[in-house]
Amino acid sequence: MTDQFISTHITLSQLNELPVLRIHNKQANATIALQGAHLIEYSPVGGTNLLFVSEAETYQQGQAIRGGVPICWPWFGPHRNQPDAPAHGFVRTCEWSHEIVADEPDRTDIRFFLITDGSDPGFPYAARVELLVSIGATLVMSLSTENLGDEPFLISQALHSYFRCNNIDDVRLHGLSGACYNDKVTGENAYVPSDLVINREIDWVIQDSGEAIALIEAGQPRFKLSRIGSRSVILWNPWIEKAKTLSHFNEEEYRQMICIEAANATEDSRLVKPRQSHVLVMEVAGGETH
Ligand SMILES: O=P(O)(O)OC[C@H]1O[C@H](O)[C@H](O)[C@@H](O)[C@@H]1O
């Protein structure tokens, strides 16, 4: 498929089997796959992609992309009582509808949306899920869930962001120390230490105060991640052994990534009442100026 002009700063293009929107405005470049409303690139002007995507990724229909920002909805991780249901819900591989909300020189806003009618066995409720992706000097992603039915339902969810680093040994995180986490590898609960170093498999569901998180690499601030409507974060790096088992992933790539996922997970799952909405927002501001 040849690229198709959509709007001043937006082009429809193709990555192997997947149609993608490419955004080039004055502040940033971005790429979003229509399957999964999956952001795979956010590069502030003059910089490189803040997001990690595996070199082994093949962009195939029906398969979740390894990297970028997968949308985990309406459950995060395994389903609560249906072990056969897909991990992280069912919207990562759905084709989302979209509309351009604004396309200005400094910011482009695209709304993706899906309606589920209650026919999914893992989520027998009617709901509209909407993801507003805003590309500018910062990246803003706003995931909203509206209950279209007559009974309340519980959701867990995550903006499962894979961030790129040059060397995981040099990565330090600020803003999480003292928060309580559940270690999904050992099952233990503990507190995030102030001198956290990622030097083993980390798969933590952290319940925190919602404070901003800063990633520092080799002493340099790389970005700050802020949230609204989220009091849980998942930190994930598969490390050596798990990396060998992952699909669409080269085994050495665990050194170039860290997932920091704005979430509503476990105790922070949210009840959405009829005709009400819950909104989870993440903003990522790159560089030292923020
Ligand atoms: O392989 P996926 O289904 O994309 O999941 C990748 C990872 O996602 C999250 O970070 C979970 O906490 C991990 O337990 C899981 O391994």
Automatic annotation (TrEMBL):
Belongs to the glucose-6-phosphate 1-epimerase family. The keyword rRNA-binding does not apply. This is Putative glucose-6-phosphate 1-epimerase. The lineage of its organism: Bacteria, Pseudomonadati, Pseudomonadota, Gammaproteobacteria, Oceanospirillales. CDD domains: D-hex-6-P-epi_like. It is an enzyme of class 5 (isomerase). Its EC number is 5.1.3.15. It comes from the Bacteria. It catalyses: alpha-D-glucose 6-phosphate = beta-D-glucose 6-phosphate. The keyword Metal-binding does not apply. Keywords: Isomerase. GO terms for biological process: carbohydrate metabolic process. InterPro entries: Aldose_1/G6P_1-epimerase, G6P_1-epimerase, Gal_mutarotase_sf_dom, GH-type_carb-bd. The active site is at 160, 261. GO terms for molecular function: carbohydrate binding; glucose-6-phosphate 1-epimerase activity.
